[in-house]
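In this section we walk through a basic example: taking a raw amino acid sequence and producing a predicted 3D structure, encoded as discrete structure tokens. The instruction is simple. Fold the sequence below.
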Amino acid sequence: MSTDVAADTAVIKALKRMRLPQTQRNREFWLLLFACAISGAALALVQLGALGFIDPFILFIGGGLAVLAFALHFVLRVVASDADPFVVPIATLLTGLGIAMIYRLDIAQHYTGWTAYSTKQLAWMAISLVGAIAVVIILRNYRILFRYTYLFGLAGILLLLLPFVPGLGATGANADVWVTFGGIFAFQPGEIAKIFLAIFFAGYLVRTRESLTSVGKRFLGITWPRMRELGPVIIVWVISLGIIVIQRDLGTGMLIFGLFVAMLYVATGKTSWVLIGLAMVAAGVLVATQILAYVHGRFTNWLDAFNPEVIDAQGGSYQLVQGIFGLAHGGLIGTGLGQGRPYLTPLAQSDYIIPSLGEELGLIGLFAILCLYMVFVSRGLRIGVAGQDDFGKLLATGLSFTIALQVFIMVGGVTRVIPLTGLTTPFLAAGGSSLVANWLIVALLLRISDGVRRQPRVVIG
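The resulting token sequence is shown next.
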């Protein structure tokens, strides 16, 4: 009798496991449908607000991209049925809202055809979704990335150096971070480099975690590492400073070092690494503000933004002040899509996409967008925490922290909480290389979450 009951229980558990992936994918389907509906409604409201009528052409293109998003969904049903159901809908909604605002700015500037930023963003979104689908199909087991830890590290450094290759580096840019092919196609290799370096950091920390967590001296209630364990942190710190000094890219340098320190803390659980990292950041910033004119200028713009002399200066705080005035104009509920004047702020479609959205969606709409980011990052951290292998745990945590740190740096910069840097707001801002990199992060998180759920659970007792 007990044997029959045990067999029935095993069958019921097996059926539940079979139904769970389908339930996850069904949840993703309805959330994705909702995200596409909100994005389409945003495009329609932009046209009604700015033009006074609805042009079906842009909605038709948006519908085509929705088809690609659902194509990713159906691929997940087949090859990664256990993947997290919230990641794709949130990324789709954020990308759709970004395209709607970029399209609104194009209308104000009378940009049409391929000269319009929204047209390019739509094309890049298609490329990004195809790339995400390819990664989900090809990368059946994310643990294979662990084998090529140092190869990814080398590739990440080479990508950062690519803009200095004669004939590839873009001229006329404020920072040496762009490469061009034939003067037609431009790409920022640092966006892909951050993913490769996250893979490298995860693999390296798994291999060296025991030495990094070795017992050190205890001071002020905290166990501090020995000097010989500081080598990797110093090396990454020097690389980050090199990016800031040579490439004049403050944002990427801060992002890479912050990513490494965060993953180091997750790997070791030692608060001392965080304190050491913050001290090294403070030292680097202090040195950079003294010897680098562009870093000093950004701190001046931050500390004395509303000084008329600073506003009118070359490279002054005019852009920052205009963005703040736009947020103030939006108020609590915003002016409505197509009804504000976000185009008065320079680079409103890229660096200042957050003030543009804040002006027309208001503080409530901006908080809703930030909540989407919070849910996205929390799902990524949940994927990492749920993992049983250290590599997947560190990689998921690192990729999620990359998105979180970018959002903090950009939102903090345009709202004058911290000095402005040269990063882009994930999924929202105009920029093909950033969009491709963010959707590749989505694909990797999907693969890791699917692998985590498929791992056998060890039950004790």
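Looking at the output, two observations stand out. The longest helix spans residues 2-50. The chain has a mean pLDDT of 83. In the next section we compare this with other chains.
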